[in-house]
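Lecture 7 notes: from sequence to structure.
We start with the chain below.
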Amino acid sequence: MLPQKAAWQTGMGAIQSSGPQLAHQMDHHRGAGGIVMSRAWATFLMKGMLMIDAQTPFNVVFVLFDNVTQLDFTGPAQFLCRMPGAKVHVAAASLDPVMTDVGFGIMPTVTFANCPQADLLCVPGGLGVAHALSDSRLIDFVARQASGAQWITSVCTGAFILGRAGLLQGKSATTHWGYASLLPMVGALHENARTVFDGNVVTAGGVTSGIDFALTIIAHLHGEDVARSLQLNFEYDPAPPFAGGTPATSPEHIVQAMQSRFYDARAAEMEAALNATA
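Predicted structure tokens for the same chain:
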């Protein structure tokens, strides 16, 4: 496991005074257990320690609502929380548990009223998005936070909440394949990709795409070695037992069955909600 933030603060004075020389020395230093600590790893630890010492952390704010898809949130949260200097906040209308679409609750850490300004704002998706589109408190919070955020992001159908807050107008974006045809309703241009960057707006496709978006952001902010270190830490090396996962790679009869049994109705529900809140 990666060192926890409290542990990273140990030896802060030595790191601040030594700077690059410490990384050079660590090329030839054996850590606990006789493992060689590489220059890349030493640099990663240095970045983490130095940023944690900063007065202002890098605030990562996730916006939750009832019936959220927990993996849209917990996937990227698990990676982003280990990003050097990051502090994760889970924001909701109140501190009451937010129910996920698998039946368990998640405890918010802040409310819309007292949430600090996000450096990175992330809106996950889920079955509750259609209802959330009519929640003016949530939409106003997203718009307000976005105005001061360095990065405005979404996972899956969270893109429609960004869109309803006026943040996708004229932007290239992606979302879950079952809802992609609806993106023009919020002014977005659909791009068929797992992660789409358009300026400081980043949208991820369905569910598991959130992990890819998190790693891409981490690499952009801290370099590829840091992102690769976290990818290794969490052993993120997807090897699903079946080919598929997208309409293009899945058997046609599976795609048709999923559409007729689930996504046709869900997309119609989302379309109605978008029309009702336009």
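Points to note: Confidence is low (pLDDT under 50) at residues 1-37, 49-54. DSSP finds eleven helices and eleven strands in the chain.
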